[in-house]
Amino acid sequence: MKLDKLARAGQSIQEAREHPSPWMIVWIALKNHKGALVGAGVFTFIVLAVLIGPLVYSIDPQLTDTAVRNQGMSWQHPLGTDNLGRDMLAQMLSGGRIALAVGFAAMLLSLGVGTAIGVVAGYYKRLDGPLMRLTDLFLALPLLPLLLVIIMLFRDTLRAAFGPERGIFFLIVLGIGITSWMQTARIVRGETLAIKEREFVLAATSMGTTGLHIITKHILPNILSPIMVSATLGIANAIITESTLSFLGLGFPPDFPTWGRLLFDGANFIGIEGATARVIWPGLAISLTVLSVNYIGDALRDAIDPRVRNK
Questions:
Q1: Could you give the C-alpha distances from 151 to 145, 171, 270, in angstroms and in order?
Q2: CB atoms within 10 A of CB 145
Q3: What does the DSSP 8-state code read for residue 180?
Q4: What is the helix (H) or strand (E) element at residue 230, kind and residue range?
Q5: Which pTM does this prediction carry?
Q6: Are 282 and 263 in contact (CB under 8 A)?
């Protein structure tokens, strides 16, 4: 009896090693990758700072005081002020909320579209060709010019419908989401092609189980790991894209602080004493956020690779 229990326990451990759960993969990734540990700590700090910071540091980011404009770091203004006397720390915290909101929302949209197309293409052979050719078509498009055209065409309509800030938010999230799903679709398709040949899927198919049930109950739970990797990289890509659009003046309204807009505004005052930090802080925030997310994504990719995990 004891030998049977030990055998079952050993088998369970071996199965957990060969097919770890998504949360186990996260733990493996963070435990074996020092860069991921640092990245997770930095990203957690940034998220907590932009979510809780405005509750503690309650200065209005739009409050202007020309008497203290272009000041450097001080106790009253820890990150200095801009050319209108607005507090840079308050604007950084407000801009961080926008960056993370756009990053997560665009990532979820991109992940949903890419996963749906990838699973359908991988499971239904007759749809594989058309869906993959559609993916190739999107991959061949110049994405940044396409985004610029989308924003120019629909910006005024959505502003009138939802307001200046909310309309642009919906437009940017939609634009980034529908132009960044292709890599996820390719990855998910490949995983689906491998999973649908496994014994438990073939057994479910032979029993007459519907395709939708097999996809939701058998395939999707077994491809969560690569989807998690795509999610982390999608957040970084969305933050970079939103910052680029804001830096080009095609994002949120000029008086609405985002990291990209703060970087653009600060670039015009580099030569002024005490104003150089206006470029450093938003640039540093963008870089640290993207780097930390990329480190986490790299660690997750290493963790789901059996050649790396079994070393």
A1: 10, 7, 29
A2: 9
A3: S
A4: helix 224-247
A5: 0.81
A6: yes
